[in-house]
Amino acid sequence: MRYTELGKTGMQVSHLSFGASSLGSVFHATQLDQSIAAVEAAIDGGINFIDVSPYYGYYKAEQVLGQALRGIPRDRYYLSTKVGRYGEDGHNTWDYSATRVTRSVYESMERLGVDYIDLINVHDIEFQAALPGGLQKVCDETLPALTALKREGVVGHVGITDLQIDNLRWVVGHTEAGTVESVLNFCHYCLCDDALADALDFFERRGVGIVNASPLSMGLLSERGVPDWHPAPKTLVAACAKAARHCRERGYAIERLAIQYAVSNSRIATTLFSSANPDNVKRNIAWANEAPDQTLVDEVKAIIGDQQRVTWKNT
Predict the structure, then answer these.
(1) Is residue 294 packed enough to be buried (19+ CB in 10 Å), middle (13-18) or exposed (0-12)?
(2) How many CB atoms neighbour CB 104 within 10 A?
(3) Most buried among 10, 108, 110, 283, by the most CB within 10 A?
(4) In sequence order, which ranges of 88-229 are alpha helices (DSSP H)?
(5) 184: closest CA among 212, 155, 204?
(6) What's the pLDDT tens digit per position in 239-287?
């Protein structure tokens, strides 16, 4: 396992990291004992960065993760959670106000059973872009509230997350240097889309660390295929399915190649994957410590072709 500093935070994070969304039964039903074992397998395998959100499973992921972390010394992991996106009884809600995000941090700490959050993120800022005040509210209200918690020692560092890279760039460019210490972007540094590579210079010049998420592009790069809610256009779904068949014919799981490719860029501090299955966690760690088959990478990219830079929205 490699460890790289996340921007200028001082946090030396593992190049593969654990996303806890699966613990909230976001993708399918999960078992508590398996979920706890998955977290333990991640830590035992050298992973030291764990990311979660109150939105995942409508608080369930944080609750389950909190149970899993009870037996793990606090100095063995960095913990990241989020504010701004929530939900209950099947209904999604968003609230990026200073009052709500401040309360959210304390609520998350209670569910997680910790008294300190290493990294707090503003979750999926594209949704605030569609609300009154737009992204300027993130700059003028949300981030200052989190920065105040940082000064108080409640959180260590502050970041933002989004599917849309342009939104991340806009907020970083419209806030004082050092306010945004990291960005989390998903599905844009993987076999079927490497658009994040174009933004690396921008973030590095500003000392902003980069967290890459979803190396399987939320199921696009898997034998299982995408869930019904996946927002990718059908043409991209079809191209990725063809790429998966090609890998299978070569005797090389597309999931293996996808993880290896996603962690291969040393300019990206860490790549998040999510699983509530400890066997999958151990397998992914083993894959992430291998170099990708570059010939197969080139073949897969050729199959996906022009679909690599199509635009799709979060849901």
Answers:
(1) exposed
(2) 23
(3) 108
(4) 98-112, 126-129, 134-137, 143-152, 165-173, 200-205
(5) 212
(6) 999 999 999 999 999 999 999 999 999 999 999 999 999 999 999 999 9
Letter for the amino acid at 229?
W
How far, CA to CA in Å, does 200 sit from each of 172, 174, 210, 232, 241?
Answer: 13, 17, 8, 23, 29
71: left (phi over 0), alpha (psi -120 to 50) or beta: alpha
Please, are residues 150 and 156 in contact by the beta-carbon 8 Å criterion? yes
Residue in the block written with tokens 């369930």: 60
Tokens at 231, concatenated: 């927002």
Residue 11 near residue 118, CB atoms below 8 Å: yes
Q: Calculate the alpha carbon distances from 233 to 75, 125, 230, 308, 310 in Å.
A: 42, 22, 9, 11, 8
The half-sphere exposure of 311 on its side-chain side, counting CA atoms within 13 A, is 3
CA distance 84 to 133: 14
- In the numeric block, which tokens belong to residue 76? 């063995």
**pTM over cut 0.85:** yes
Tens of pLDDT, residues 28-44: 788 999 999 999 999 99
SS3 315: coil
Q: Which residues are marked as active site?
A: 56
